[in-house]
Design brief:
The structure holds two protein chains of two kinds.
Chain A: H1 2-29, H2 34-38, H3 46-56, H4 62-74, E1 80-81, E2 86-87, H5 88-123, H6 128-142, H7 145-159, H8 179-216, H9 220-227, H10 232-269, H11 275-284, H12 288-316, H13 318-321
Antiparallel strand pairs in A: 1-2
Helix pairs in contact in A: 1-12, 5-6, 5-8, 5-10, 5-12, 6-8, 7-8, 7-10, 8-10, 9-10, 10-11, 10-12, 11-12
Chain B: H1 20-28, H2 32-49, H3 51-54, H4 88-124, H5 126-141, H6 144-154, H7 160-169, H8 173-186, H9 190-197, H10 202-210, H11 215-238, H12 250-258, H13 265-294
Helix pairs in contact in B: 1-13, 2-4, 2-13, 4-5, 4-7, 4-8, 4-11, 4-13, 5-8, 9-10, 11-12, 11-13, 12-13
The chains are: A mainly alpha, B mainly alpha.
Chain lengths: 323, 296
């Protein structure tokens, strides 16, 4: 187990190093340098641009630039955000907790909902309910995140104004609320974005879990359980689900990229003040260092997510636990 | 299914030639859901192809930016008009053409790269394979949308061609891994050994003996891949860095109405419906194809 952990950690470190190299390539393959895009402004003279380039080391040979870049990344320096006039890491660190909260709630929600749907389907496999739910999960799986989020926003903040239009807290009143009201205010703002993301992600989970459940049903131990006289419901819950949940753990790791991408759109549409909103706004202001910083942090999140899922898997599978 | 020889391990046995496409098509036509999906998809493709003949208005024309702007759906404009007085139905029809074309072309780029990279890694094996796979791991760790943001935000507004290229360049990592696995599994199959014994070159073995056995995973990946690209392009256009104005793509139209979402609901609803329908039919067909090829 320890050796596996060490190997898996080393793998993750290599991936992060490659990601750094890729992000460096991104910066340098982009036409011009970061200053052509940022300083399209004709009022900025060429000499100022030159000075900036020299300051940031963009006039040095590529290998030297790469060494400097990796060095500053290692120190946690992701560059300077032009639009916020603050270090990129600062900007992202302030909003990251909101993204983690949104993704965390959505992750738990999507897996609970997805597994529940799959259980209902498998309990009534072949029935009309099963087929109808298959249609629903396929629809969710095919749904572009941003379109679904727009519809959710229109439906539940304009047509049926149950939830606030956006943000993480009430912009005016939150300051004056007591502790209980503050928590309530946060939950009220969190519910719709988190639920939207969870429902979107639940489609893939349900499809995966249904297939995993159907995979284990022909196993000998299921037949044994049936011969013991267990009800179909008990068999599903105590024997089939337990074994079919194992592959689902690795799905947690695999679902991170989609969850993060979904969070980007949902944060934009619900004005949820997280990393996604910061990066999407940075597109508009052409704040390139902030966008690349978001790419790096997002990739590290995905890598850590799949690392965690693998560790969880190794811990949950008795066949791997001993190693 | 007895009598139907499809297993790759016996691919060297002479059999009546039927292309993998024909097999796939024949098998998926047996299930009603994929028949419906095929009809819907064919209709949308036809709409895209015949856009100039079907669209009631010029998709880029702004006939009366004051009098005809932001009209709700009516008989004259079934999907309404946008803030520039353009007819949304015509834009959705032309959007079908552009979104499908981008999906198809970008997927072609991805397929070429993914198959080449995966086949080479799998066939080479050893250190080359290990290094190539680690690079792939890193690319797979970067969510595709973020990678595209990193590429697209730095430069000026891209042309459609460049957009297609970048969509293709960021879409081959997953397929590459599948292809590599298949090549690795088939590398020591008897028909490969036989070809080697007959003196076939490595390239010939790869192209003539291994690749034909990869057609089914490639067809499946292509079908689902087109769906991915359509969603991705729409997402990028929605963020304002995808298809440039005044061209119409489904994501683009939604972007045009985004800041007045509640008042211009028709600008989000209709293009989105077309998009979901297309993506869903592609996913149904992809899944049906997977089942069709999996059945031994």
């Amino acid at each position: 187990m320890l050796r596996y952990l060490a190997r898996r950690l080393a793998q993750a470190a290599i991936i992060v190093a490659f990601v750094a190299a890729i992000s460096f390539l991104l910066i340098h393959l982009a036409p011009g340098d970061p200053f052509t895009a940022v300083m399209d402004n004709p009022n900025v003279s060429e000499s100022v641009r030159q000075t900036l380039r020299a300051q940031y080391g963009f006039d040095k040979p590529l290998p030297e630039q790469f060494a400097r870049y990796v060095g500053s990344l290692a120190r946690g320096d992701l560059g300077w955000s032009f639009s916020h006039d603050r270090p990129v890491l600062d900007v992202l660190a302030t909003v990251l907790p909101n993204t983690l909260l949104l993704m965390g709630v959505a992750l738990v929600g999507s897996f609970s909902l997805g597994i529940l749907i799959a259980l209902i389907q498998v309990a009534r496999r072949g029935s009309a309910t099963d087929h109808a739910l298959s249609g629903v999960t396929l629809l969710l799986f095919s749904m572009p995140d941003f379109w679904f989020a727009i519809l959710a926003l229109l439906a539940f903040t304009y047509w049926f104004p149950i939830f606030p239009v956006g943000g993480a807290v009430d912009p005016v009143m939150h300051e004056y609320m007591g502790l209980g009201a503050r928590i309530g205010d946060r939950l009220h703002h969190l519910t719709l974005p988190a639920l939207t993301l969870a429902v979107l992600a639940a489609g893939a989970v349900a499809r995966f879990q249904r297939a995993a459940l159907l995979d284990v049903l022909p196993a000998d131990y299921i037949r044994t359980a049936r011969l013991k006289g267990l009800t179909e419901r008990e068999i599903l819950r105590r024997h089939a689900l337990r074994n079919a949940l194992l592959p689902t753990i690795s799905l947690i790791g695999l679902s991170f990229p989609a969850l993060l991408t979904g969070a980007f759109f949902i944060e934009k549409i619900f004005a949820w003040p997280g990393m996604g909103l910061a990066v999407v706004n940075a597109i508009g202001t052409r704040d390139y260092p902030l966008v690349v910083g978001g790419v790096i942090i997002g990739s590290i999140m995905v890598t850590l997510g799949s690392l965690l899922a693998d560790i969880l898997y190794a811990w949950a599978d008795p066949r791997l636990r001993g190693r | 299914m007895p009598g139907q020889i499809q297993d790759s391990a016996v691919a060297s046995i002479p059999r009546p030639r039927e292309s993998a496409f024909a097999i796939g098509l024949r098998r998926i036509l047996r299930t009603p859901s994929s028949r419906v999906a095929l009809v819907i998809l064919a209709t949308i493709i036809l709409v895209g192809l015949l856009a100039p003949f079907i669209a009631p208005y010029d998709p880029a024309a702004q006939p009366d930016i004051v009098g005809l702007k932001s009209l709700a759906p009516s008989l004259a404009h079934p999907f309404g008009t946008d803030p520039y007085s353009r007819d949304v139905l015509s834009r959705v029809i032309y959007g079908a053409r552009l979104s499908l074309a981008i999906g198809l072309l970008a997927t072609l780029v991805s397929l070429t790269l993914g198959v080449a990279y995966g086949a080479i890694a799998g066939y080479a094996g050893g250190v080359a394979d290990a290094v190539m796979m680690r690079v792939l791991d890193a690319f797979l760790a970067i969510p595709r949308l973020l990678l595209l943001l990193g590429i697209l935000v730095g430069g000026p507004q891209l042309s459609i061609g460049a957009l297609i290229l970048f969509l293709g360049l960021t879409g081959w990592f997953g397929l590459s891994r599948i292809v590599r696995g298949q090549v690795l599994a088939l590398k020591h199959a008897e028909f490969v050994t036989a070809a080697q014994a007959l003196g076939a070159s490595r390239r010939r073995i790869l192209v003539r003996h291994l690749l034909p056995n990869l057609v089914s995973p490639i067809v499946v990946a292509a079908t689902v891949g087109v769906a991915h690209v359509i969603v991705l392009e729409a997402g990028l256009s929605y963020l304002g860095i995808g298809v440039p104005q005044p061209l119409a793509s489904w994501g683009n139209i939604i972007y045009d109405g985004a800041d007045q979402g509640a008042d211009l609901w028709w600008m989000s609803l209709f293009p989105g419906l077309f998009m979901v329908l297309t993506v869903m039919t592609l996913n149904i067909l992809g899944e049906a194809l997977r089942d069709a090829y999996d059945r031994r």
